[in-house]
Amino acid sequence: MLHLVYTSSKIHDFVHMLSTRIARGASQRFVRSQCRSFSSSKPAFIEPKAAEIKKLGVIGAGQMGLGIALVASRVAGVPVTVVDNSQKSLDKGLAFADKLLAKDVTKQKLSQSDADAARARLTATTNIEDLHDVDMVIEAVPEIVDLKKSIFANLAKIAPSHAILATNTSSISITLIAAATTSDPTDTSASSRVVSTHFMNPVPVQKGVEIISGLQTSQETLATAVEFCKRMGKIPSVSADVPGFLANRILMPYINEAIICLETGIGEVKDIDDIMKNGTNVPMGPLQLADFIGLDTCLSIMNVLHTQLGDSKYRPSTRLRQMVDAGWLGKKSGRGFYTY
């Protein structure tokens, strides 16, 4: 009898325990189902869709501008309108494009028919109003803040309301440039379409391009810039909107230090470039690279870094300042660290 009571008690405890666990499990399943329900009712993150670029505008017929225009025409296959206020610069730029295309045909990198088609897609004009029907504009003028701000203020009025407004700036704040598109800071209809596509020099050769968003830049603008650069055969890297961005924050102090090594007698031009080419596997040394970039551009970027970051390590070297003052700007002027 005692055994039966004991067994009944155990059975009672077991049933109680089982019912408790079942209830707890049911409760947990209910909570999980509700979590799933709440999660499924929450809007899912939608990846921004890149707009299709069918026609491009490029402002600036210098080495960078024509390089961008040529690659967009040849690789992405889009018509490109190149704008410059100097007809002489346009003629020189198109001659540069012709030379590059002919070189690629000679090296059998491109057929003559493809070269002719790429050239036919390039149109030159001195009238910025001709950008009224483009889907994207890439500005590639010298690193002068007021000049860029003036251009973007005009683009906000001239370009279609859907057009991406990109700058090739290597050092100037994208947020600052975007702000020039409106007098009303609450109106982001134009500023949200401003982004940086910072191509590396020379554009037809270098694969890298920095994509930088300003404070106002929309995700759709960023996505469109990234996708179009990929269509151009480039490998985009996204950077924050800070002085020098990624590439020049690293590159310019490297070039500046090489110039300091020259001016302090640590090494000669050839020795400096040779040790970096042969010792670190870069295609060209820092001084030759500076010549290709343009010493005025190098000085401008170093000034921005030094002024905005306030660190003495970014102070431009005396030799760099002197060479710019002398007009020895590198390849584009015929003389820099090398003679061209």
List keywords for this structure.
340 residues, alpha/beta, eight-stranded mixed β-sheet, 12 helices, 52% helix, globular, disordered N terminus
H/E series: HEHEHHEEHEHEEHEHHHHH
Strand order of the largest sheet: 3-2-1-4-5-6-7-8
Give the radius of gyration: 29 Å
Fraction of residues in β-strands: 5-15%
**Largest sheet report:** 8 strands, mixed
Mean pLDDT: 90
Q: How would you classify the helix and strand content by structural class? A: alpha/beta
Distance between the termini: 114 Å
* Overall morphology: globular
Helix content: 40-55%
Uncertain stretches = 1-8, 30-45
Enumerate how many helices there are, as a single number.
12
Number of strands: 8
What can be said about this structure in brief?
The protein has 340 residues and is of the alpha/beta class. It contains twelve helices and eight strands.
What does the model show?
The chain has 340 residues and is of the alpha/beta class. It has helices at residues 2-41, 63-76, 87-106, 112-120, 145-158, 174-179, 219-231, 247-263, 269-280, 286-293, 295-309, 318-325, and strands spanning 56-59, 80-83, 122-125, 136-139, 164-167, 194-199, 208-213, 235-239. Helices cover 52% and strands 11% of the residues. The chain has an eight-stranded mixed beta sheet, with helices on both faces. The protein is globular. It starts with a helix and ends in a 15-residue tail after the last helix. Mean pLDDT is 90; it is low at 1-8 and 30-45. Residues 55-240 form the 3-hydroxyacyl-CoA dehydrogenase NAD binding domain. Pathway: Lipid metabolism; fatty acid beta-oxidation.
